[in-house]
Amino acid sequence: MSYKSLVGSINVDMKAKYEQSVSNFQSNSISKVRVFGGDPAYANEIANGKYDNWIASTDERPVFMDFGGDSLRPIWELCRDESRRSALEKAYPDYAKEKTKPLPKFPLTEGDLIALQADNGNYLNRREPLIEAAKQGIDQSSRFKVTVLEDEKIALQADTGLYWKVEAGIVTPTGSFVDKIAIDIYSKFKVEYVEEEGKIALQGYDGNYLSRVGPTEIKASKKEHDVHCDFSVYIL
């Protein structure tokens, strides 16, 4: 129940008492609002019950969302009538296609702070001098800042201020290193949005895809895209 609806149902004296209590609480507490997607500049407005500006900004700054395996159920499973259930299930793909909003061609924006999750469920993290997929949760070493470049390419900057790069010279590059203090050809990655929503693949300067190889190692070693090259994107 909102505070407004609460005080609206009590007398004037009690309303003044509760208003003072709320004012005292607010002046002696710290409130934080965390938003996913949209312009974070409007987060404070949400705290005051104003959502319109933030909602409008989500078109320009979308965030990839997900649901657990048991979070949603197909609507046709609620039908008792078998023929009705079958009809809904068959009709759903065409209906969903009409209602699906296309993913922006290049939704990552300048300055985005992101985390990337590999196909093993772990998050990519900085562990000098390598980038690996070893973190089970997002921490400081698994947050990377996006610099948007031309031709749908990006550079990724670690919390140390250094950029990822792919170091070539052998048949398979030696790995994705975080040892560049400036962006050059070796630290530019072409972004490819894969069919599964919320995932991207990254290609290095030589066209090879970044891929998980072995338990946690990340290398730019794949000429052809496969599931090990897919990374789920979380905008923080």
Description:
The chain has 236 residues and is of the alpha+beta class. It folds into 3 domains: 3-57, no CATH class; 62-101, no CATH class; 113-235, Trefoil (Acidic Fibroblast Growth Factor, subunit A) (Trefoil). The protein has helices spanning 3-7, 12-27, 43-47, 52-57, 82-99; strands at 113-117, 123-127, 130-135, 144-148, 153-157, 163-166, 176-180, 189-193, 199-203, 209-213, 217-222, 231-235. The strands form 4 sheets. It has a 6-stranded antiparallel beta barrel. Strands 2-3 form a two-stranded antiparallel ribbon. The radius of gyration is 23 Å and the shape is extended.
Spell out the key features of this protein.
Trefoil (Acidic Fibroblast Growth Factor, subunit A); alpha+beta; disordered N terminus; 6-stranded antiparallel barrel; 3 domains; 5 helices; extended; 236 residues; two-stranded antiparallel ribbon
Give the helix/strand layout.
Elements lengths: L2 H5 L4 H16 L15 H5 L4 H6 L24 H18 L13 E5 L5 E5 L2 E6 L8 E5 L4 E5 L5 E4 L9 E5 L8 E5 L5 E5 L5 E5 L3 E6 L8 E5 L1
Antiparallel strand pairs: 1-4, 1-12, 2-3, 4-5, 5-8, 6-7, 8-9, 9-12, 10-11
* Head-to-tail CA distance between termini: 29 Å
Structural class by sheet pairing and helices: alpha+beta
What is the CATH architecture term of the largest domain? Trefoil
CATH-assigned fold name of the largest domain: Trefoil (Acidic Fibroblast Growth Factor, subunit A)
Widest sheet, order of strands: 1-4-5-8-9-12
